[in-house]
Amino acid sequence: AQSVTQPDIHITVSEGASLELRCNYSYGATPYLFWYVQSPGQGLQLLLKYFSGDTLVQGIKGFEAEFKRSQSSFNLRKPSVHWSDAAEYFCAVAPNAGNNRKLIWGLGTSLAVNP
Amino acid sequence: DVKVTQSSRYLVKRTGEKVFLECVQDMDHENMFWYRQDPGLGLRLIYFSYDVKMKEKGDIPEGYSVSREKKERFSLILESASTNQTSMYLCASSFSRYGYTFGSGTRLTVV
Q: 10 Å Cβ neighbour count for A102?
């Protein structure tokens, strides 16, 4: 079955430190890939997406993600974390075959930022 | 700015009440979705719709129904609210499989 795994439930980093959030997916072909962020009490906001082409994609708020086909991974990175980045981060995939419109979601990674 | 609007941010209802959660999108998206979000359980799909008057069950449809009479509006109905339906409800819309746009969520408390 198709699945998305975010291995880290909680991560704490210091402000100014670099960040990498992991995402692995299980799917036979290359899906469409997404990262979303959710601030407390809010809906989800799209950070970035990968459909094809350059495997390093840039998103909003200074985030980037790299698609690695060999590892079935789509890890999210930021070189220097700000206190306002504290939030829940979700990775999602959309199978790019057939007529399936549903995203498959990871369970999320909660990011805390120490001052 | 394109938008998905959920009618209420916070809602408190009594057990047994019929509850309507409304969602409106202004992007002419074909697909609309209702999720509930609970700590440790991530996002769970309740129902989705890919066209007017069309609906499909998601992973946890029991106790819920939906209505989509117009393309821009997708309503979630709790036929008889129960305390285990206390949750954050998120509406989203999409065009094809090109990612979702979410509303701000409705935090429903059933007492």
A: 20
